[in-house]
């Protein structure tokens, strides 16, 4: 028989026939009794699949014949846009598995031989799994599999053969570090999991897979380290993650709101990273990660306030430098939140608190400015936000240049036009620079939002309004939870044993001498208190 080489087989990390139930937890929108079966008649099954994929011209239906006088028929179905390189003929592989020689016409093979061989898990050259209904066949074909149907058999064989072009592992551009690993996650789910497995060589690293609902049928993976994660947190997470079975999920950010305890707070309750080393460190710390096929982002939960002030590079530098830089981040956080508000409060209500020489300088620079301090600050912050967004959206080589040149031009033009004073330009510039010092982008968005209400309170009530704003923020932070965990831990509630890695980073021998994860620290503290 003249056979055409068709498909290229990419080897899977695990045997699909043995792990199908583990890797695919499909949404049960309909019971097995209501799933459309594969018909014993090849013509009927083939016509049904042709009806399902009608109008999709990149789906190939390739008939085959085998046996004595080619009297038996089969059909291979696949998506040409997903199986782009055709170098392995799976039908020929099936025939060669059933005959005692590597090559030959396979004239003595019958449909019963095929059924018995694969239903009894005979050893095959290419890994395949048996599917028993058309719904699963359609899902496998759309997932890049080659499905082979046989006449007189109410089942089919499915081979993994997806060969779409993918981005290779490269340096992380969103979380750069001077020292430490430079690799980043990509859009391939299994490749990302492999990056984590390579660093966590332990059977305690547990993985679970499920499939989102809707038309996307995105594959979702979440994992944790058994014995490190808090069981109550894990149970609450699993309860919430099950909601994705009825939703269209295209990116990990879609899942973020499902896991949050409070959806309307400006503070993020999960961390997002594209660094495998950051995800592994979080797992050792008792966290849970979530990944979605087609997205390089890793979602880490629960996310606590103090963790947003930490950077992966803190653990790759010496203790003194890491602690100094971390304290600098806390200072930057305070400056970027309150500096414009303090300037407005002092210049509007409390000029007596400003040193005389500095006060005279500020008054001299504000002479001729037609706006009050609040409106002046809002205008300059508006210009700053536009420049920040322009720098993010523009191509990377152009964005940084536009941000720098734009800031210089607009700042000087605002001073020359009498729209803003030089002191206000300095304050807004320091605010922006301090904001860029924060390591987590989603947390820096929160800080940008908090400035506005604090500036309004400072313009109405001065320092007293600023104190009201601080109290409101602190009360709000203390009331927040992330998957049931206190958002401000270990500050509130106070857990002294965890202070070794909050404002400063203790030496590595102290950090590594005891378990890293907070759950074990917390359990040990409770045991000592009870004793």
Automatic annotation (TrEMBL):
Residue ranges of the TM segments: 327-349, 369-387, 394-413, 419-438, 450-475
Keywords, comma-separated and alphabetical: Membrane, Transmembrane, Transmembrane helix
Pfam family, one: GerA
Keyword check for Transmembrane: yes
PANTHER family in the record: LEUCINE ZIPPER PROTEIN 4, SPORE GERMINATION PROTEIN
Family membership: Belongs to the GerABKA family.
Protein known as: Spore germination protein
Organism: Paenibacillus allorhizosphaerae
């Amino acid at each position: 028989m003249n056979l055409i080489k068709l498909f290229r087989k990419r080897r899977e990390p695990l045997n699909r026939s043995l792990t199908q139930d583990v890797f695919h937890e499909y949404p049960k929108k309909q019971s097995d009794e209501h799933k459309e079966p594969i018909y014993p008649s090849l013509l009927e099954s083939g016509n049904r699949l042709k009806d399902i994929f009608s109008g999709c011209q990149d789906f190939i239906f390739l008939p085959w014949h085998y046996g004595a006088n080619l009297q038996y028929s089969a059909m291979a179905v696949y998506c040409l846009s997903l199986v782009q390189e055709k170098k392995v003929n799976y039908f020929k592989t099936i025939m060669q598995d059933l005959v005692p020689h590597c090559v030959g016409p396979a004239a003595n093979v019958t449909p019963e031989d095929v059924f018995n061989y694969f239903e009894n898990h005979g050893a095959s050259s290419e890994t395949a799994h048996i599917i028993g209904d058309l719904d699963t066949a359609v899902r496998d074909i759309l997932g890049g599999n080659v499905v082979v149907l046989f006449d007189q058999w109410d089942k089919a064989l499915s081979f993994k053969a997806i060969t779409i072009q993918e981005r290779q592992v490269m340096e992380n551009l969103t979380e750069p570090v001077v020292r430490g690993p430079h690799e980043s996650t990509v859009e391939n789910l299994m490749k990302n999991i492999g990056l984590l497995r390579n660093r966590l060589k332990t059977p305690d690293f547990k993985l679970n897979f499920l499939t989102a609902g809707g038309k996307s049928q995105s594959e979702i993976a979440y994992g944790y380290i058994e014995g490190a994660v808090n069981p109550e947190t894990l149970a609450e997470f699993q309860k919430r993650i099950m909601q994705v079975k009825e939703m269209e999920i295209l990116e990990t950010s879609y899942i973020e709101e499902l896991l949050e305890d409070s959806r309307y707070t400006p503070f993020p309750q999960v961390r997002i990273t594209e660094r495998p080393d950051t995800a592994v460190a979080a797992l050792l710390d008792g966290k849970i990660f979530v990944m979605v096929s087609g997205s390089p982002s890793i979602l880490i939960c629960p996310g606590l306030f103090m963790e947003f002030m930490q950077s992966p590079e803190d653990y790759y530098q010496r203790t003194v430098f890491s602690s100094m830089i971390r304290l600098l981040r806390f200072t930057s956080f305070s400056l970027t939140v309150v500096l414009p508000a303090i300037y407005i409060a002092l210049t509007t209500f409390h000029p007596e608190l400003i040193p005389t020489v500095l006060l005279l300088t500020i008054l001299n620079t504000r002479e001729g400015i037609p706006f009050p301090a609040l409106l002046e600050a809002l205008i300059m912050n508006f210009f700053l936000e536009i420049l920040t967004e322009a720098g993010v959206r523009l191509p990377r080589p152009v964005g940084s240049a536009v941000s720098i040149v734009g800031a210089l031009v607009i700042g000087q033009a605002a001073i020359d036009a009498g729209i803003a004073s030089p002191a206000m330009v300095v304050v807004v510039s320091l605010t922006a620079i301090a904001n860029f010092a924060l390591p987590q982008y989603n947390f820096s968005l929160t800080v940008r939002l908090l400035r506005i209400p604090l500036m309004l309170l400072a313009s109405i009530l001065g320092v007293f309004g600023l104190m009201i704003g601080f109290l409101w923020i602190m009360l709000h932070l203390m009331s927040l939870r992330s998957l049931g965990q206190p958002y401000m831990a270990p500050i509130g509630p106070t857990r002294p044993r965890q202070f070794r890695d909050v404002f400063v980073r203790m030496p590595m021998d102290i950090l590594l001498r005891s378990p890293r994860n907070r759950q074990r620290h917390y359990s040990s503290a409770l045991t000592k208190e009870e004793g």
